[in-house]
Structure formats: structure tokens, C-alpha cells
Amino acid sequence: MNAIRPFTLDIPEADLADLAARLDRTRWPEAATVDDWTQGTPLAALRELVAYWRNGYDWRRCEARLNALGQFVTEIDGLDIHFLHKPSSRSDAVPLLLTHGWPGSVVEFLGVIDELTEPAVADTQAFHVIAPSLPGYGFSAKPGATGWGVERIAQAWTELMQRLEYRRWMAQGGDWGAAVTMAIGQLAPSECRGIHLNMPIGRPGPDDMQSKDPKVLKALQRLGFYQEWDSGYSKQQSTRPQTIGYGLVDSPSALAAWMLEKVHYWTDNQGSAWDVLTMDQVLDDVMLYWLPATGASAARLYWESFGKFGDGTVSIPAGASAFPGEILPAPREWVERTLTNLVYWNDLDKGGHFAAWEQPELFVSELRACVAAMP
């Protein structure tokens, strides 16, 4: 039952033909009554992406890349967990547990794994990379009962690292990955050296509402925008995930629209997501929701844990990298209320919510700097 089994992707051609047929049969709505993104993903932007998906995108390229990295599955607490595992050849490499979020997947890390495991500069820190797919995401199994919130996932990830026989490892994450990584920090397994977040989690205190600090004012403004204009997806997924799931599992165009809106708003771009990501990168991610039909199961994590996102404090060594395009920026003083043993902090000058995806070089350098600061 504790066996780690190799996993090879080989999606049947029939599934890809079905996708093509569904894209061809998309029933399009009329365009929005505004010429921007304020009513959601614009018709023209989605039609452009769907046209490329239908006529230019090559899934087999992504499939080959994932297979070449090394994919595995192991059953933990009754659920098959899929994960990438790329050990370094370096004896001094640090085991690194990377956890993605929504609407992300393990493909967020494809641009950093090679440099993390086999650095181009020989004397820089190397890592053994372990990147699991959250339960109900990607090619991990879908929970058939309630209870798979971030605390249980943190316990499962700790079990995964034990099965891989890693000692003195580090956990890292953003979005749901940040919540899971914080939960690992709260468990404080003896083997965990520390954690790193690229979505630092912190909440304002009573005095912050009267603050004149520009960083605090920016954080409060972004929090207000998120609550009023950007959080509809989370309200739907945290209250009625099954309802939205029907559309996300049945219609590839609906799935792409649901995800593209967040990629547009949450990347640090100059007006278009394609400023920082390619259509291939985004569609690789969409395919990890479409092929295993995880639109509903991924949304259920919000039902399980959204109301407790980032609760509690972490006392083991922690580091945080604050990227300027983060959806909910938290000033250092807020984060220190949550990460009470903050040994590393850095404010970056570019990058957004999907740090590894958008800024792979900065992401890698931040992890190396954080490890260097860990006791």
C-alpha cells in the first residue's frame, strides 16, 4: 500500500479528438458591453486562445516533458497522489517540496526544475524536487468524501516525504500551496527544515486601517479590490463547487475562460497575460484540468478550506518573497504575525501570483537565498 509506482502519461487519441470536437461546437455568447476585462474574459481574447488550442497547440509536447521529468503515484490515506520527482545528482542538494495552487498545477514548475536540480553554476545550491498534484487536481485521485482540506493534505505531504526517505527537507508554495505549506509549518515535522512562501499570508490589524505607510495602503487597496471585484470565483467554489463543476468539466471553452480571467488579472503584465506567459504554457495548465476532468474536484478544496485560509501561526524557520503583482500583498509586519520565526524576506520588483511560472530565474534565486538564511 505504501508503494511508489511509476506513472506514464499516454492520453488516448480519442480524448484529444473529443476535445477538438467540443471546441468546434462551442456555443459562443455575445461580446461584453465593455471593451475591457471588467465583465470577465472578453470574447475576442477567449476566441483567440481557443483557436490556437484547436489548431496550433500540441499536447504531446507537454506530455513528453512530464514523462521525461519522472512522474509517480503513491496511495496515501486511501487516495492516489500523483507527483513529479526529479532528484539532483548533487550530494549536497536540499529536498524541496513544491506545492501549486488554483488555477495552477505542477506545470507551473516546468521552467524551474532543471535549474533547481542541476544548477548552471556549479557552486550554487541544488535541490531534489518533489512536486505533488493536490488531491482532486491534475492526475491525483479525486476525494470521494469530505475531509481533504489543507491540514490533511499537509499530513499527506509529510508522509510522502517520509516514503521518499528524505531528511531535512524544505516546503514551498503559493496560493493553495502557501496554505498547505503553512499547515506543514504548523505540524512542524522534525524533518522539515523550514518553509518558503511566494504568497506571504498576513492580515491587517486594527491600527493598519489608519496607517499612512504606502505598503499598507497598497495592501488595503488590493484587498478591497479583491473582495469587491476579484473574488467571485472563490465564493462560487467555496459554496457551490458542484454547480460550477458541470460547466468546467463539460465545456473546454468555459474552463479556459474561467482560468484565463485569473491568469490575466494575477500575472504581473502590461495589459495581457501573453506579456509574461505563452499560450502553450497556459494551455498546458488548462489541459491538466481538462483531461482528468477536475473542474469540480479542484473547486471543492475551496469548500473544504477557504474559510480557514492561512489561519494560525508558524514558529519553525520561514521565508517569504513578496512579488509586486501578488493578488493579496501583505506587508512584512502583517506576515510576521503569522510567520513568527521569519528568517528571510525580500520585496521583488517584478512578478505576480504565479512566481515560478512568470519569473523562473527570480523564483530560483529566492529559494537559494532563503535556504542560505535557514539555520
TrEMBL record:
Q: Which UniProt keywords apply?
A: Aromatic hydrocarbons catabolism, Hydrolase
Q: Which residues form the Epoxide hydrolase N-terminal domain?
A: 4-109
InterPro entries given in the database record: AB_hydrolase_fold, Epox_hydrolase-like, Epoxide_hydro_N, Epoxide_hydrolase
The GO molecular function terms of this record are:
epoxide hydrolase activity
Q: Name one GO biological process term.
A: epoxide metabolic process
Instruction: Spell out the catalytic residues.
Output: D175, Y302, H353
Give the Pfam families listed for this entry.
EHN
The entry assigns this protein to a family as follows:
Belongs to the peptidase S33 family.
Its recorded name reads Alpha/beta fold hydrolase
